[in-house]
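Example record

One chain of 309 residues, shown exactly as stored in the release files.
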Amino acid sequence: MLTKTPGKNAEKFSCKSCDYSSSKESEYKRHLLTRKHKTLTKPESVNFGAETLSCHYCHKLYNSRVGLWKHEKKCKEKQDIVLNVTEIDNKFAKSEKELGNEIITKDMFMELIHDNKEMIKIIKDQHEQIKSMIPKMGNTINNTTNNNNFNLNFFLNEQCKDALNIQDFIQSLKITFEDLYFTKKHGIAEGISNLMINGLKELDVYKRPIHCTDLKRDIVYIKDHDKWEKDDNKKIIKKTIENVAIKQRNKISEWVELNPDWIETESKQIEYLTLINKICEPIEYDNKLEKKIIKNISKEVHITDMKKM
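Predicted structure tokens for this chain:
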């Protein structure tokens, strides 16, 4: 059924039964696993001397209904995972005409890692632009948050003068495989929140680079480049969230190095696809998810009793 046709750039693989063709052998192999191909190429009848039953998903034959029932429960779960590949490819612009007939290869994964590195460079360039746009507040934040003798300027510039810069805080975060599995289970918003909150909890309150003065409006002050600034438009904290998300995405490359056989093992293929689907969700384009993370962080760093600080 495989037909190789000479072309200008590459061989062409085609399936006559399904009227399908591709210039990539990997796409052709993906096609062979589709339900359409299996349906069109399965034998019209199979005679084992007894009644045979066929799996609705993969068309594997069984002689007993009990055996078929047990198999179909597991087979359906596998089919659901495979169907998610299309959604993953859409998010990262890796799809061509027939997303259901592609496979994720090591080359595609390395391309994703390369894109992440490019994104980090863009973010750094944008950060430099932000620095020039935000008014210089220097060491004098003339803001008295509470009339009851709490002085925000004194709290930040004196009591919190040794706090970490936000970039140093990001660098200090240690991403573990447990963090990847937490994000896989709970989603990207909870995963990033968990990473940052755990990092903040490890610091003394006066060492933290973020403080929230108004939980209802999520007003936060962030220490960046050795000075405290009010993050009026949430630009700094959003960039912080994006940098942490990228740092977590890059951890997947370590998982691949520790699991070099993932491309040949079905269970590890499923694990890999699920990690990519959850962890590589483009959070920087989802304002709702960013707001949720900011709210979670604000609750952790909210100055609840200013008089005592």
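Notes: The chain has twelve helices and eight strands.
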